[in-house]
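so my prof wants the structure for this chain in the tokens format not the other one, which i didnt know existed until like an hour ago. anyway here's the sequence
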Amino acid sequence: MATKTENKSETTSKSTTTQTADLDTNMNDKMKASPLHKLFIDALKDIYFAEHAIVDALTKMQEAATTEELKEAFEDHQLQTKKHISRLEKVFKLIGEEPAKKECKAIVGIIEEGNEIIKSTEQGSMTRDVGLIIAAQKVEHYEIATYGGLAQLAITMNHEKAADLLERTLQEEEDTDLLLTEIAETSINFEAEQED
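here's what i got, hopefully its the right format
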């Protein structure tokens, strides 16, 4: 039979747990209403739109590329971008939001620049590949800036799991940027210089 002290301790423990849960709920409600949280959600929607647009753009870039190495890099990054979309969906879920897109004018403009490079360069030329690498790196730099900022915001708002996912994507975007630089510097830039 439980003593009065044990019952009182159990009641106090349940009361403390309930108070902690109520505090967490209040904190979450306050956080969701804050301008910073709204900014974070808008930025997530922006990059979610961007990643979907990038998947489509990478198909065009792969078809337009001259060298097999660059074609493969675009194909690999397209598969990776699909993983990034899936990761973003997990981030939305972790913070209690539905995944949604908000038009990203920056990425629309960068992709349009890439389309202009395809139109204005000769098919099968190294010059086109140089232009495609520059266009792809503009995309990467936009993503690096966005994911870096989002990861820091997630840390600030105590969304540790979301921050981990965002930082993983950030690292992959940085790796892709380095790979594109390596492809350009190894041969494509030099070969483009020799073209008439």
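also thought this was worth mentioning. The mean pLDDT is 88.
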